[in-house]
Amino acid sequence: MGEIGEVLRVESDGDVAILTLNRPEKRNALSDALIDALANAVEAAQRSSRAIVICGAGDHFSAGLDLAEHAGRSAIEGVHHSRRWHAIFDRMEQGPIPVFSALHGAVVGGGLELAAATHVRVADEGAFFALPEGTRGIFVGGGGSVRVARLMGVARMTDMMLTGRSVGAAQAEAWNLCQYVVPAGEARAKAVELAKKAAGNAEMSNYAILNALPRISDMSRGDGLFVESFVSAMTATSPEAEERLRAFLDKRAAKVGRPQ
Ligand code: 1HE
């Protein structure tokens, strides 16, 4: 347990590191200090834990970019700022362990870009999603034009950015912005529960899922299938996979459950 400059709370629950954005008085706006703290905590967790949950303190997940810090940045400073977010979110998305996010209240602008860089998004039924960049006179800079557009499609993203449209959790799930919607107040617990399940997977499988899937989806069909055959063979021949396959055949492993 610990705090990184107080803007980020770091705890652990078994193999799962829980990182809480902790600027509730500023609605967890993503200041440079908070982004740096997040980068350090993610890198530390990638060495010591088997999964990460990111959530927000107070009434909101995150109000996005800290607009107070943004004013007065020159164009080149803006490029460096955006590229820093890209580097951190890329390291998280194509890292060694899965990252889950627990979303509640506002999931806005850069907050949505951060959520989109996590692998599984669990939204509280009261969460709302928006991209107010258009109304603020700016553009996405935290990878949203790539990740958010790929999740929900360019047309929906264009509408949200142009009109300031805010969408609720059910709509967000239908649009692929989150994979789960849970009753109010339960997002963090659900995200931790799911993270613990993923933490129990074979390390090589998780690595392949996180690193091969996004790359293969960027490839042509033929290249994707070719790469898949190698990742598949490599993963299945790890000692951990062999033991898990043997456990199933010996009836020592759990069966697939029915949907609940
Ligand atoms: C902030 C920020 C912020 C709140 N930067 N300080 N993001 C936005 O355009 C969203 C702007 N925020 C809001 O629309 C609202 O704050 C919320 C809907 C998220 C929450 O409303 P509410 O009523 O709970 O809080 P509040 O009273 O609006 O804000 C409380 C304080 O947080 C207040 O400061 P105070 O000193 O007056 O107490 C707000 O100014 C402050 N605050 N949001 C700085 N974002 C890499 S590019 C990404 C581009 C973007 O992310 S654009 C989207 C920016």
From TrEMBL:
Keywords: Lyase. One of its GO terms (biological process) is fatty acid beta-oxidation. It comes from the Bacteria. The keyword Lyase applies. The keyword Lyase applies. InterPro entries: ClpP/crotonase-like_dom_sf, Enoyl-CoA_hydra/iso, Enoyl-CoA_hydra_C. GO terms for molecular function: lyase activity. Belongs to the enoyl-CoA hydratase/isomerase family. PANTHER family: ENOYL-COA HYDRATASE, MITOCHONDRIAL, ENOYL-COA HYDRATASE-RELATED. NCBIfam families: PRK08150.1. This is Vanillin synthase /trans-feruloyl-CoA hydratase. The lineage of its organism: Bacteria, Pseudomonadati, Pseudomonadota, Alphaproteobacteria, Rhodobacterales.
